[in-house]
From TrEMBL, chain A:
Main localization (coarse): periplasm
Organism: Rhizobium etli (strain ATCC 51251 / DSM 11541 / JCM 21823 / NBRC 15573 / CFN 42)
Family recorded in the similarity comment: Belongs to the bacterial solute-binding protein 1 family.
Signal peptide: 1-24
Protein name: Sugar ABC transporter, ATP-binding protein
Automatic annotation (TrEMBL), chain B:
Organism annotation: Rhizobium etli (strain ATCC 51251 / DSM 11541 / JCM 21823 / NBRC 15573 / CFN 42)
Transmembrane feature ranges: 7-31, 67-89, 109-132, 152-178, 199-221, 259-283
UniProt entry keywords in alphabetical sequence: Cell membrane, Membrane, Plasmid, Transmembrane, Transmembrane helix, Transport
Protein name (Swiss-Prot/TrEMBL): Sugar ABC transporter, permease protein
Topological type in the membrane: Multi-pass membrane protein
Domain ABC transmembrane type-1: 67-280
Length: 476, 292
């Protein structure tokens, strides 16, 4: 009886402590947000699974807790950039927080578009949440720090690698394994080299001729930068061509001047990639990252490089995906020596993609936006966000039981991201990202449609890139 | 004759608005066109370039190709819409046509659809692998239709999409013009023994000229600055095969932030448009300018 009373007592004390803590947390957000009650903050982002979670869940929860209304615009990738950049350039102040993709952050920093979050919180301690701790984030946060001051300029909200997804059900099927062995003399397993990958792609294209199944996805839109990104940030690195083949010090792109854009390795990579189109579904030349995910989810490809932001829904959401329970995850195939270079930190095998929310210098509600960014930067909101958007930006999220459980359903995508994420790297720190992309991409498009040969495409692209860098004043 | 200046007072607000939204930006673009200005350059300030931007344009094959492509596109869509629009206008005016009102309504619907939605819808119809257009073209005619690899398919699809969207506008304009034509000259021509072609060419066309001229001008301007529909349909591809001048300028001005060069391109394109319009005006009216 005595122990029962004690237990009840301890229970009540615990409950009291828990509720007072919860109330204290609530009251912190409410107190901090008091001066901004009734304010509306507007944000813009690419319509990705992670962004949709912010729009549908985190924004309304923040409004409920603080009284600050969040208006969120989730739009297409190009529209997102177009609107955000115009707003910041013209200083109109339409948006209070914007999506900063890892690619563009150096351009935004060079143009002083962003509010320094570290400094702003230090200057205004009243709105600095005790739950927002930059040290809780993964090293992905480093991409959103000002290289000069080390201050945080954006709160990571999306982070993923581009893994090699394959159809586990097909690869594990004994009949298919036998057919593959008979056809190629090799065992059917996820490819680790480009030759193996091509061989598998060819086999499944022939095998699937009457089944609406092809050997591979290719993100090869013949008029959208997605093709540029797939080639330079997912494929070229696996051939040992880094930073788009541009030397970060001399800004040379041609091999003659010390660049790599038209090197033998780059040409081999482009020939390989363009060559995969004959084993890819017909929509591939119209595919951006979204369509590639759609193609794989529709069961139209046996393997492919798919943006990891889509891995969760492809592997677990039966309402959208026909391959639930059939998805295998592996590292992309590489050329000899590339994996070793990545492991030693001298190279990488693909792009570590993602983005953060930052506050434009033109925002008219900077403090209210700072509160919102801290709100979405709390450890407590990360797990459900990760479940919805297969994105992880905090170390603690990896160990959450819900994530561990989802990881099993995703064939270890999160484990791969945690353990091998170091093999991937963010975009090169180029402030001229969009300028060079627009100059080089048309040559990649021409190679895709066969207007010019891949070797010529890279020769011309490297020359054009260098000319653009001279014009911009980076290269003397 | 007494003149009152009060009319000028009424005109002032409109004149001011026109000045602010039309003339000032135009002067600013003219000004920027003489500078080298890229906010992402190492030196992001305006640097005097004189006529360099215009000199570069003359040798810029991508720009010239875009311009030529746009002119070809504009020629095909304007001529086709005019012919098709006239045929449809006559058909929809025929008393014998059963359900005429219903067809008129159906035919007019595309005009109210936003260009961005038109482009998106046509893209869905035409996307290889999923779209019903490639599916049925393959099934019925064995054609491997692919707007993301075949430049010809993409260009023709862009023309057909424009015809679908804007022919109803031409039809409506011509119907209004035809309805307003006086009956007497037509009856007189019939009495004089003119055949249908002669009546069309020597009586209807001259009388319809004001309406034709207005319609052609409107459609020509629209076709020359076509951006949104094409962006949604092909994004200017495959490669650069449907990168019309509007898209090309947009790419240079926004993602590339090459403001000086973009301004020069815009002005040159405007100049070409004005010259073309003037030539068309002269060709259709026989006059070299000015109102009648």
């Amino acid at each position: 009886m005595n122990s029962f009373v004690k237990a009840v007592g301890v229970g009540f004390i615990s409950l009291g402590l828990w509720s007072s803590t919860a109330l204290a947390q609530d009251s912190w957000w409410k107190t901090a947000a008091q001066p901004y009650q009734g304010a509306t903050i507007r944000g813009i982002s690419e319509s990705t699974p992670a962004s949709k979670y912010v729009e549908q869940v985190l924004g309304p929860k923040f409004t409920e807790e603080t009284g600050i209304k969040v208006e969120f615009e989730a739009t297409s990738w190009d529209q997102m950039y177009d609107k955000a950049i115009k707003d910041m350039e013209a200083n109109t102040g339409i948006y209070d927080f914007v999506y900063i993709e890892q690619d563009i952050v150096y351009t935004y920093l060079a143009r002083n578009f962003l509010v320094d979050i570290t400094k702003s919180l230090a200057d205004n301690a009243k709105i600095a949440s005790p739950d927002f701790k930059p040290e809780n984030f993964t090293t992905f946060l480093n991409y959103f720090k000002d290289p000069k001051s080390g201050n945080v300029m954006g709160v990571p909200m999306e982070a993923f690698i581009k893994p090699y997804l394959y159809r586990k059900d097909l690869f594990d099927d004994p009949a298919i394994q036998k057919a593959y062995k008979d056809s190629t003399g090799a065992d059917l397993k996820p490819a680790t080299t480009h030759d193996e990958y091509t061989q598998i792609a060819k086999f499944f294209t022939e095998y699937g001729a009457d089944k609406e199944l092809w050997g591979t996805t290719v993100q090869a839109s013949s008029s959208h930068p997605a093709a540029f990104y797939e080639f330079f940030e997912s494929v070229a690195p696996t051939f040992g061509v880094y930073n788009w083949g541009i030397d970060g010090k001399t800004f040379a792109a041609t091999e003659a001047n010390g660049g790599q854009m038209n090197s033998a390795a780059a040409k081999k990579a482009l020939n390989y990639w363009v060559g995969l189109l004959k084993y890819a579904p017909p929509e591939s030349t119209s595919s951006t990252w979204d369509e590639v995910a759609g193609t794989f989810a529709a069961g139209r490809a046996a393997q492919g490089l798919v943006y990891g932001e889509n891995a969760a829904w492809i592997a677990t959401d039966e309402s959208k995906s026909t391959v639930v329970g059939k998805v295998g995850v592996a590292l992309p195939p590489v050329e000899a020596g590339v994996m070793e270079a990545a492991e030693s930190g001298k190279g990488y095998i693909g792009y570590y993609d993602g983005g953060a929310f930052g506050i434009p210098h033109s925002s008219k509600n900077k403090d209210a936006s700072l509160l919102f960014l801290q709100y979405i930067g709390q450890a407590s909101v990360q797990t459900d966000w990760a479940l919805a958007g297969s994105r992880i930006v905090m170390n603690s999220t990896y160990h959450d039981p819900k994530i561990v459980d989802q990881d099993k359903k995703m064939n270890g995508y999160y484990t791969l991201m945690r353990e091998d994420g170091k093999l991937f790297a963010g975009a090169p720190p180029f402030p001229f990202h969009a300028q060079v992309l627009q100059v080089v991409a048309p040559f990649i498009y021409k190679a895709i449609v066969g207007e010019i040969k891949p070797d010529d495409a890279l020769d011309q692209a490297a020359t054009a890139a260098e000319a653009e860098l001279v014009k911009l004043g980076y290269r003397k | 004759m007494r003149q009152s200046n009060i009319g000028w007072l009424f005109l002032t607000p409109a004149t001011l608005i026109l000045f602010v939204v039309g003339f000032v930006p135009f002067i600013y673009i003219l000004y920027v066109g003489f500078f080298d200005w890229n906010t992402n350059a190492v030196d992001p300030t305006l640097r005097w370039a004189g006529l360099q931007n215009y000199r570069s344009l003359v040798f810029d094959t991508t720009f010239l190709n875009s311009l030529a492509r746009t002119l070809v596109f504009a020629f095909f869509v304007v001529v086709s819409e005019l012919l098709l629009g006239y045929v449809l206008a006559r058909a929809l005016m025929a008393d014998r046509l059963w359900g005429r009102q219903f067809f008129r309504t159906i035919h007019t619907l595309p005009i109210v659809v936003a260009p961005i939605a038109v482009g998106a819808t046509w893209r869905l119809l035409c996307v290889p692998g999923f779209g019903i257009v490639p599916y049925y073209l393959k099934l019925w005619f064995g054609i491997d239709y692919n707007i993301s690899t075949n430049a010809y398919h993409a260009f023709v699809t862009a023309i057909i999409m424009d015809l679908w969207h804007w022919t109803p506008f031409v039809t409506l304009s011509l119907m209004a013009g035809l309805t307003a034509l006086p009956k007497e000259p037509l009856e007189q021509a019939q009495i004089d023994g003119g055949n249908k072609l002669q009546i069309f060419w020597y009586v209807i066309v001259p009388m319809l000229k004001p309406v034709l001229l207005t319609t052609v001008f409107i459609r020509l301007m629209d076709a020359l600055r076509s951006v949104d529909e094409i962006w949604m349909l092909t994004k200017g591809g495959p490669a650069e095969s449907t990168r019309f001048i509007g898209l090309h300028i947009w790419i240079n001005v926004f993602p590339k932030t090459d403001y000086g060069y973009g301004a020069a391109m815009s002005l040159l394109t405007l100049y070409v448009t004005i010259v073309l319009s003037w030539l068309l005006f002269v060709a259709m009216t026989g006059r070299k300018g000015g109102a009648q």
